[in-house]
Each structure stands twice: as C-alpha cells, then as structure tokens.
Amino acid sequence: MTSRTRNLALAGFSLIVILVLCVGFWAESFVTTAVTPPGPRVVEIKTGSSFTRIANQLAEADIISDATRFTWLARWRDATAQIHAGEYFFEASARPDEVLARLVAGDIRKFQVTIPEGFNLSEIATRLAKTEVGSVDDFLALCHDIEFIKALDVEADSLEGYLFPETYTYTSSTTPRQLLRSMVAQLDEHLSPSILASAEALGMNRHELLTLASIIQKEAGNVMEMPLISAVFNNRLKRNIALQADPTVIYGIEAFDGNLTRKHLETPTPYNTYRKRGLPPGPIASPGQFALHAAANPADTSDLYFVARGDGTHEFTATLKEHNRAVRRYQLKR
Q1: H helix or E strand, kind and range, residue 228
Q2: Which pTM value belongs to this model?
Q3: Terminal CA-CA length for the chain
Q4: What are the angstrom distances between the C-alpha of 237 and each of 138, 186, 229, 306?
Q5: Distance in angstroms (rounded) separating the CA atoms of residues 59 and 147
Q6: For strand 305-308 and strand 111-114, is the pairing parallel, antiparallel, or unpaired?
Q7: Is residue 203 classed exposed, middle or buried when 0-12, 13-18 and 19+ CB atoms within 10 A define those classes?
Q8: Sign of the torsion angle spanned by Cα atoms 188, 155, 142, 284
Q9: Is residue 315 helix, strand or coil?
Q10: Please, which residues have CB within 8 angstroms of residue 47's CB and are 6 or more apart in sequence?
C-alpha cells in the first residue's frame, strides 16, 4: 500500500469516526435534553395510531423537540408497538426517554367522580353525566336495560340501590357500561358473606337487604344510629306493622316538590309504607357500607318508633305512648 493510499484510508476512517461522533452527539443531546412545554398540554393517542403519527403529535404539542429522533429512540428501545392509547397530560419538563417511558407505561390522564351515600339513580346519573363519559339519558337507559342488568347478575327491574357509593377513577376512553359495571362490582365486594348470612338469618335475600339498607341510609342522621333504626324496622317487619318511612313515600311521588303532605301519606303507591305493609318493591337509593351492615345486624332493642329531635339525631321508643310523648316534645313544640 502506497503512502497516498494509506493517507486516503486514514482520512476516510477519520471522516467516518467524525460522522459517528457527530451522530452520537446529535442523538445524545436529544435524549439528555429536557423539554418544557410552553403550557399544560393534553395529547390524545388514538388506538391504532402509527408511532410516526404519535411522534409528530408530541412534536406539534412541544412535548419533544424532534419527531424523527424520538422515533429512532423508540425503535432502539423496541417500544414502537408498546404504546398505550389514551389522553396524556404534559406540563413539567421531561427528557424524551421519560416521555417514552410514560407512553409505554400507559400513564394516561385519569379523573375521579364521587357518588355520595344515599343518592338515587336520577342523582347518580346527573353526577356521572358531569364526567362526560355519557349523558344522563345514557346512564338512566342502561340502569333500566333488562339485558344489561341480567348480565351484571342483578335480579331487579333497575340498578337502583345496586350502584355502590364510592369514588371512582375513569379515563377519556371509559364507557358508561364500564363505569356502571365497576359500581355494581364494588357493591358485590362490600356484600360480604357474613352480611349476606346475617340477612338470610333475618329472612331477607340480597334485594330485600338492599331495600332495607337504602331506607336506613335515608332515615339516619348519623352512622351510630343506623343499627337502632334497623332494629325499629326489623321489629315492625316481624310484627307486620307498616314501616311508615317518609323517604319511601317521597321516592314514590313523581316530581316531589320538597313538601310532604298528609295527602301524600294517604295516596297509595307501591312505595307508600304508610299504606302498604312490608318492604317496598326495591331500594330507594344507594346504601353505604354502614347501612348495609346495620340492615343485616340490627341493634338488640324492642323499639318500634323513632322521631327526629331536630339536631340530626332521633328519640327511640318502644311504645306508642312514649312515642307520642316524644312527638309532642320534639315535633309539635318545634
């Protein structure tokens, strides 16, 4: 090999080394340089999107500085087929490899909705509609869809009382069916074998247990009184005495205006427990864990009556004479 040939080879090798070093520096600077979005950014990655499309979305939103190098990074990490669809929220400064890690982990944007204890189907549907997962009509239609109800292993005409009050997490891709299914599943988790066994010992099946628990939930001013209220209702059921529960009457009134009248108490409806003995046809709201436990485990008392004291608590009595005295003291006087 001549001196000229050696010089040319050396020059070519040096050029390749320089190019490799430049490419390496170019790639390294991209990977190690964090990008700070100019403001909060939400990027929605749809199912079936190509990684090139995903990289371009991130670049357009100023989450990364270069779509091409981000694609190369993903291919080098063998991650192009591991991206999860959904909404991603970006706000803080992050390196490209950190962004990629979030996409692979499926760190999608999550939201929460809380259903309070004692909400009925209409109130729950209104609350769920605020999630924008579905409309009020969407949720109510499913709650009365017999096929959907049967698929959830619920033996009832609606999901009233079967949607457990809890805080639920959802995403932009969550459907009304998925959300309702998770609420029924939560109820199943809280209806422990011991609660169901205690209810059976009292002569109640699951539907009747939920019905009684929903009434207790609406009547109780605090959880400490729930077993006492349960005792009153259980004692009345055993003696075939009408429950006379105002919340059930109200539930049976169409477009109730907030004023319970004597006419309402005298109007026969399936939920008027002044006119009808025994439990109403079904729950009137979603009971919480304490109400479920109280319905199956009433206090050991002989009380048959209770009246509100006006401070959120009740006076419990065993005889009509004592009850009338309590009514005069706490209701008529007030």
Answers
A1: helix 226-238
A2: 0.82
A3: 115
A4: 37, 28, 12, 15
A5: 46
A6: unpaired
A7: exposed
A8: negative
A9: strand
A10: 85
Local structure of 10: helix, strand or coil = helix
Q: Is 89 helix (H, G, I), strand (E, B) or coil?
A: strand
Architecture of domain 32-109: 2-Layer Sandwich (3.30)
pLDDT tens string, the chain, 334 residues long: the values are 565 555 444 544 445 544 544 444 445 556 788 899 999 999 999 989 999 999 999 999 999 999 999 999 999 999 999 999 999 999 999 999 999 999 999 999 999 999 999 999 999 999 999 998 999 999 999 999 999 999 999 999 999 999 999 999 999 889 999 999 999 999 999 999 999 999 999 999 999 999 999 999 999 989 999 999 999 999 999 999 999 999 999 999 988 888 888 888 888 899 999 999 999 999 999 999 999 999 999 999 999 999 988 888 999 999 999 999 988 888 765 5
Look up residue 305 and give its DSSP letter: E
Task: Say which residues have a Cβ less than 8 Å from residue 258's Cβ, sequence separation at least 6.
Answer: none
In the chain, where the domains are located: 32-109, 111-190, 193-301
Residue 188 tokens read as: 């199943």
Kind of pairing between the strands at 167-170 and 111-114: antiparallel
Locate 27 and state its tokens: 């790639």
